[in-house]
Amino acid sequence: MSSPHGRSAPIGGRLRLRLKEIGAFGVVGGIAFVVDIGLFQLLYGHLGVGAVTAKTLATLVSMAVAFLGHRAWSFAHRDTTAVRRSFTLFALINVTTLVLGAAIIWFVRYPLGQESLLVVQTANIISIGINSVFRYLAYRRWVFPAVADPDAAEKPQVPADGAVADDGAVPPAGRDETVPAVTRRVR
């Protein structure tokens, strides 16, 4: 079924699914964020653990929370590969973002000489924001890939104008001009 603008109806469904996915990613990320910030606050602000060590420990705990939430909810509709594989990729992506986050904390704390909990925590929050965009894209691409459709190879690609030859064959997408107008019909 096509809309008046030539777009197929499934686009609306894909958009709704993407918005739901982003919303769930945000909720799970929000919970992981609270865990990260709270644990960092506890370790660095109250227990005297070094800033980079506190950031590392807080990130590792929030990473475990995030993996479970994303696997069970945010990306549950996508292909769930083996837990070992998906967690390994998840961990690699998060180690990369951990290094970036720790580097930002280190830069603010040591070269810039900022000791204030407020300043260091602000740098922490900024690093989490930067890393969240990268993580969302990487999770979708590598950790929780799109479900492979085994029937996709068997389904004919119907052009946007719905042109089909008299014998039922579907012309290649974008090349229906090769089929004479006499043999084309619109459903």
Short characterization:
By secondary structure, the protein is mainly alpha-helical.
Written account of the structure:
It is a single chain. The chain is 61% helix and 3% strand. The chain is mainly α. It has a two-stranded antiparallel sheet. It has helices at 10-46, 51-74, 83-109, 117-143, and strands at 163-165, 184-186. The longest helix has 37 residues, at 10-46. It contains four helices and two strands, in the order H-H-H-H-E-E. The chain starts with 9 loop residues before the first helix and ends with a strand. Helix 2 (51-74) runs antiparallel to helix 3 (83-109) and helix 3 (83-109) packs antiparallel against helix 4 (117-143).
Q: How does the overall form come out from the CA principal axes?
A: elongated
**How far apart are the first and last residues' alpha carbons, in Å?**
10 Å
Q: What would the average pLDDT be, to the nearest integer?
A: 80
Strands across the major sheet, in which order? Answer: 1-2
Q: What is the tally of helical segments?
A: 4
Low-confidence blocks of residues:
167-187
What's the story with the biggest beta sheet?
A: 2 strands, antiparallel
Helix/strand/pairing class, anyone?
mainly alpha
Q: Bin the helical content.
A: 55-70%
Question: Quick one: how many beta strands?
Answer: 2
| Strand content range | under 5%
Write down the secondary-structure element order: HHHHEE
Radius of gyration: 24 Å
